[in-house]
Specification:
Length: about 120
């Protein structure tokens, strides 16, 4: 089975930056989507950004222009560069990988990494 290891979370002041990383172990196939979701206290988990194995990206409206998702297929790693962070970005950020087009073949989650933006 696929396991995801996340890193890069932490505490930062408003306007600052963080870079999240998520490395997948095990085979994730050649056709897949890797992405980042977040969940703030009392709220539902929501999509932040996603990227396909072919490099196509999808961003939530609230992060467009501030966050950038990228991946290294050789390393099975996805990154999230977060700039101009806002207090409302505070949440637990979760890494996800799923197969396409049949999501039932693979849908794995990391344990999450805390991002806290002060001010």
């Amino acid at each position: 089975q696929v396991q995801l290891v996340e890193s890069g979370g932490g505490l930062v002041q408003a306007g600052g930056s963080l870079r999240l990383s998520c490395a997948a172990s095990g085979s994730i196939g050649s056709l897949n989507v890797m992405g980042w979701y977040r969940q703030a206290p009392g709220k539902q988990r929501e999509l932040v950004a996603a990227i396909t194995s072919g490099g196509n990206t999808n961003y939530a409206d609230f992060v467009k222009g501030r966050f950038t998702i990228s991946r290294d297929n050789a390393k099975n790693t996805v990154y999230l560069q977060m700039n101009t962070l806002k207090p409302e970005d505070t949440a637990v950020y979760y890494c996800n990988v799923r197969a396409t087009p049949l999501i039932g073949l693979l849908n794995s989650w990391g344990q999450g990494t805390q991002v806290t933006v002060s001010s």
